Amino acid sequence: MADPLLREQKRLYGLPAAKFTTARNARAKELRKDDPELADAVAKLPKPSVAAAAVNELVREDPSEVRALVQSGKRLRAAQEHAVAGKGDAPLPGAVQEHRAALDRVQRELRRRKLSAPTLEKAIQSVRVASVDPELQPLLERGTLHEDLHAAGFGLDPSLVPSRGKKPSPKPARADAAAAKKRERLRTARKGLEVAEAALDEATRRAKAVQRDLDRAAKDVERAQRAVDEASS
Q1: CA-CA-CA-CA torsion for 6, 133, 104, 84, nearest 10 degrees?
Q2: Cβ atoms of 14 and 60 closer than 8 Å
């Protein structure tokens, strides 16, 4: 059986942000008599930001694209772990490219919505962050985000670096060589990620420029059509 609270979250976070508070309070009141504990949990659900609500709405309208993005985010994280563990960075460029392509598709869908520029930027950033975070991926895939998410980019997560177990202390020379080798692997992995991030930022910039050109062209067509209509009347 599905988690009752999760079921309520999916229903409420599928609503426009403007309707959330009224619907949440009404639902909590309905549940109060039969399930006070669930009613309290529902009443505490935070109202989603406008950007989060837009992402949640997109998930419900086109879940396949968001699902593909989350899966590519999981593969990207696995590739990061692979690189940091010193197993080579061969999977990393392909994983970055796959994730970037999936992110671009979701961004295009968000740009088709009537969002202000700041809200669109927040929605894109939230999708980008949630898609590579194991704790946020389920929220994104279910369409139950409630806040704007922020991160510098796809930097290496310190938690991905293997922890050192309690082993007998090696000889100083061997320890220094092992540490130097690990630092070199980490530098190589970080360099690969920096290159990938730069490519992603450039692609995002070009996409924004193309969208601005399209908007201007659409306005030009609109003005020209009005001129034709006026001349014909």
Answers
A1: -160
A2: yes
The answer to whether the CB of 39 falls within 8 A of the CB of 32 is: yes
State the Rg of the chain over Cα.
Answer: 23
Q: Judge contact between 80 and 155, C-beta under 8 A.
A: no
CA angle, 110 as apex, 206 and 60 as ends, to 5°? 150
d(C-alpha 201, C-alpha 212), whole Å: 17
Instruction: Please give the structure tokens belonging to residue 177.
Output: 């060589």
Q: Per the structure block, which two tokens stand in for 109? A: 């869908």
* pLDDT the model gives residue 206: 72
The residue written with tokens 């010193």 in the block is 86
What proportions of the chain, in percent to the nearest 5, are helix, strand and coil? Answer: 75, 0, 25
Q: In whole angstroms, what is the distance from residue 233 CA to residue 228 CA?
A: 9
CA distance 187 to 47: 41
180-226 pLDDT, tens digit each: 666 666 666 666 666 666 666 666 667 677 777 777 877 888 787 88
